[in-house]
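Q: Structure for this?
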Amino acid sequence: MASSIVKTTAIVAALALVLTGALLVAGCTGTDDGTPTSTPAPGTQVPTTGTASGRLSVSGSTTVLPIAQALAERFMALNPGADIQISGGGSSVGVSAVGEGTADIGMASRELKEAETTKYTTLVPVPIARDAIVLIVHPSNPVPPLAPGQIRDIYAGNITSWQDVGGSDAAIVLVGRDSAAGTREVFTEKIMGTVNTTPSMLEKNSNGAVQTSVAPNPGAIGYVGLGYVDATVRALDLQVNDTAVAPSVENVKSGSYPLSRELFFVTRGEATGLAKQFIDFTLSAEGQQIIEDEEFIAITR
Amino acid sequence: MMETPTTTIPAPSPVAVPVQRFDLAERAIRGLWLLCALAAVGAVLFILLFLVLDAYPAFAEIGVVPFLTGETWSPTSTPPSYGILPLIVGTLLVTTGAMVFSVPLSIAVAIYLAELAPYRVRAAVKPVIELLAGIPSVVFGFFGLVVLVEWLRVSFDVPTGESLLAGSILLGIMSLPTIISVSEDAITAVPRELREGSLALGATRWQTIGQVVIPAALSGITAAVILGVGRAIGETMAVLMVTGNAAVIPDPITNVLSPVRTLTGTLGIEMGEVAIGSLHYHALFAVATVLLLIALGVNLGASTVLHRLNASATGRGGPRRLAAVTGRRHAGTVVAVLVTALTAAIAGSIAGAPAAVTVLVAGLALIAVVPRLSRDQVEKGAFLLLYVAVAAVIAILAIILFDIVSKGLPALSWEFLTEGPRDLGRAGGIFPAIVGTLSLVAGAIAFALPLGVGAAIYLAEYQRENRLTRVVRSGVDLLNGTPSIVFGLFGFTFLVIALGLGVSMLAGQITLGLMVLPTIIRTTEEALRQVPQGLREGSLALGATRWQTIRRVVLPPATSGIITGTILSIGRAAGETAPILFTAAVFSQRFLPSSVFDPVMALPYHLYVLATTVPGARENTYGTALVLIVLVCAIYAVAIVVRDRSHTTMRL
């Protein structure tokens, strides 16, 4: 019996050793050779002339994460010495991480709240892009462009059938974001005002989840960022003062599409070193082009 | 007079038996296990303390009673309202529904595996069911959102399938492997003599199972169900994806197709976006506190009820036993009628009045007919139900696996497995995430296994059942019922910020280790209890010390049960997102981690970000899910081989 315990212990210990060994070897290889785990996109000329180096941690809003990721990939391709670590978690996690010093840059899809500026007094938000909020329905839903007032009544629970707004005879299924989301805040500010949302609205925790809920359901309506509109959903035009305004990049830039917001990088004090280089890259022409490629809207052009 | 031959007995050699040394070593070892047991309780108290500290401002400003009984949860409306009654009701309804779905199914499958299945079938089916434990909760949530919800919407012709029913079914499926595995271990451990005695008295196999084996295994089955309830109450990701998260109380309460919101769903969905230090933030910590208290209440209640059941079934209840038995027969009929009525009401809410009437009539007919059937007919009927249950569980697993494999296989390639991600994860591979997950799991088990086994040894071997053991066990159950997102929050505020570890592999490993600690403690304790008392007594009678007995006589047969617990824990640790969300994971970094203080990429987190934040990554999402399942399978395979080898060599 004792020898079998010894054998069992030996196997488990061997397994643990192998795992740890693999990790250490992999880790050593990674750092010493500088072998990148993110490789540049195929076919691009990589002018590795950049001298920026060091480690940068970026954390926060899941809306901003795709932009930050795309920017980081390009920045790291240009600067082989730079290591940018990106994680999500939500705007608030990002702000508190920056405030506490566990991240160098926080991503936020909303403006800083009073509680945050009181607790962390040196936060500096830098707007880096704009985002449009688009109302989406099922592709087969024939409803005509809706006025903001109608949308407000729908989300307040006063209108419950598509027939009342010019669609077919079906129940409206409301999909939205959780109550603290930056996206919902903008929606509330610009559409709902002081009218409360009905409690029977289905709440989702991300843009992608809203889109996944609306796409298969003929009676559903939801709101997402512009980058999430694809062939599986139909984007609604807004009826603004007798004109149907489509949610497009041009209309947001011109200001005729009212549902838009700014996205921010937040730093502790004015940005310095690698953080400053990264933010400068983001605001440069190349950075803003990358932002537009991800279907967000540039801020400086 | 004959001289009696005398044999000279040699004088005993003056071996100095070092009694003092034995005592000291024994006491030191006992103290070590006591520390482990207290550490588990300490962890729970610590987490509770952290939660209450942050929750207090909310209770002070909102008031405890308005908070608990308010019917509207709407923190961002004007004016904001913080009533959590709909959330409490949602949690209770979803958990109850999940248990109603899962417990009968699980126990049926466990009985089949332990009693009826041929050895080869059992050896094949048991690992397959444990595989269900390795499917990450995000994958379940994704499957639920894309397949289950749609199926419900189309089948029952309702505006949306996101509902209480979807949440219950999904949570029920997720608790299946836990309850099945632990129950099966308990049933297998019932001594053969009990079965043989019953059969010798002329009972049928079903009568033996129902009236001898199950009552003897009741304590293990209780542990299994409590673990399952803990899993259901604490699940965050899957439930927030399919229940709709609408903070309403279903009207009427049996309307299972109404959307609901649970306490964990509220935490999962709002915690990341809320402003630190605001009233909303403190209110969420108050929600977490209430959740823990409910989990504790459910555990205590379940323990008490099953303790009473155990006492009446095994005759430990004393002279009241006869009354309990006769009372029970009538009680059985009353319960059956109530269950029929409730099922009819639920069927009515799903499919209308005709369905309700059908269920009612069928149920009453069954209640009238079954007691009048012969023993053999009852046995045939019962075994048929068992086979149906097994078929159902295998079918569920097949559907889920088929969905993931068919959609994920196209994404697999050598590049996918050995390179890092590109283009936000839409292209490239997931190699760093694989390495990250392996190291997180290894670290979590390295942290939890010694601590958990030590605590279990103390509870099972060194203490009689008294207040201390009950306190420790309640602490362990409380830790078990803690939602994964609460672990993540605790890890963030304590390990990452207060201890200054930063977002690191170490913080993630400790958080995950805490999360799986109760599973290891519970299963180890059950495994130790199943070792027959005669073995211990024989060893002690031969002069061995307590620790020698444990090490050489008690632990070896318990090894297979301990490995079951480790397997379940590995599956849980590998697939959880919420604990590593704020403590260890990054979506991308350039190099692999070079020390435990670096952050890591991890498969479940990668999956979560791809599924919810990166548009156009559907194929790689499924590919990541597939790789994660295969990885967990590989770890399982090793552990199962180890368990089977130790089982055959230890078989008594």
